[in-house]
Design goal:
With about 240 residues, this protein is an alpha/beta fold. About 30% of the residues lie in helices and about 20% in strands. The strands form 2 sheets. A 5-stranded parallel sheet has the order 3-2-4-1-5, with helices on both faces. A 5-stranded mixed sheet has the order 6-7-10-8-9, sandwiched between helices. α6 runs parallel beside α7. The radius of gyration is 19 Å and the shape is elongated.
């Protein structure tokens, strides 16, 4: 029988936000792979997983999570990580891969699944959805993501602040991921598009160092890389105005 590789979304950091299905998938797997940077520090995915499975079941695999400039180094790290997971799949029936947020939203799991399809043909790939940072930030801040016919745009600021500015100039709510290193540029984009007043940002959601604050307080101080921004849609016309 074919082995199974299951990408499990474990949410943005609060272990209570892992779904029941996610917990079951972690516990039913023979081993649970967690991605770590080459500095080997414990990441959010690993910390969350350890609330539900014993440490001896967890396999730490290095991914070039923080490598953006050296593509060769990044590709080599992905190949090495894929090779390690391939070994696990050949030895076990079910391998889970824990990823923060959702495995189908800007997740390392996507690249891993592509690699495994080449290294271990016939592997069954499944995903278990997870709560995203934008959902958690909306809940913690009281920001409403969408109403009526409003669109919702999600932008990774690693693509550049100009991409965010274009989105802010359009309709609906705009969510920005990974903007911590460009906080000043993000504040300028919000200001120039008239979207600063109602916007909110957050980092380390669900963790002791959590911060949820108005975007108007953004300055030139660098923020954690995994910071999230919500710029709600402009809403006029009262209740149900966008229906």
């Amino acid at each position: 029988m074919s082995s199974r590789l299951v990408g499990v979304g474990v949410g943005p950091g609060d272990p209570e936000l892992v779904t029941v299905k996610g917990v079951n998938a972690l516990r039913e797997a023979d081993v649970v792979v967690v991605p770590v940077m080459d500095t080997m520090e414990r990441g959010r995915a690993e910390a969350t997983v350890l609330h539900y499975v014993p440490e001896e079941k967890v396999v730490r695999v290095v991914f070039a999570l923080n490598e953006r400039s050296d593509r060769g180094r990044r590709e080599a790290a992905w190949d090495a990580a894929g090779g390690r997971v391939a070994e696990l799949l050949r030895a076990h029936d079910a391998v889970a891969f824990a990823t923060i947020g959702d495995p189908n939203v800007y997740s390392t799991f996507t690249y891993l699944a592509q690699t495994i399809a080449e290294l271990v043909p016939g592997t069954v790939v499944e995903t278990v959805p997870g709560i995203t940072a934008m959902q958690d930030l909306a809940a913690r801040s009281g920001a409403v993501l969408t109403e009526g016919t409003e669109p919702l745009t999600l932008v990774p600021v690693t693509a550049g602040a100009a991409v965010l500015k274009d989105a802010l100039a359009g309709p609906g709510t705009v969510v920005a991921y990974k903007f911590g290193r460009q906080a000043h540029e993000v504040a300028e984009a919000l200001r120039e598009t008239g979207r600063l007043a109602d916007a909110v940002w957050g980092s380390a959601l669900g963790l002791p160092e959590e911060s949820v604050r108005p975007a108007a307080e953004l300055d030139e101080t660098p923020l954690p890389y995994l910071s999230t921004l919500i710029a709600p849609a402009r809403r006029e016309g009262g209740r149900g105005g966008k229906l």
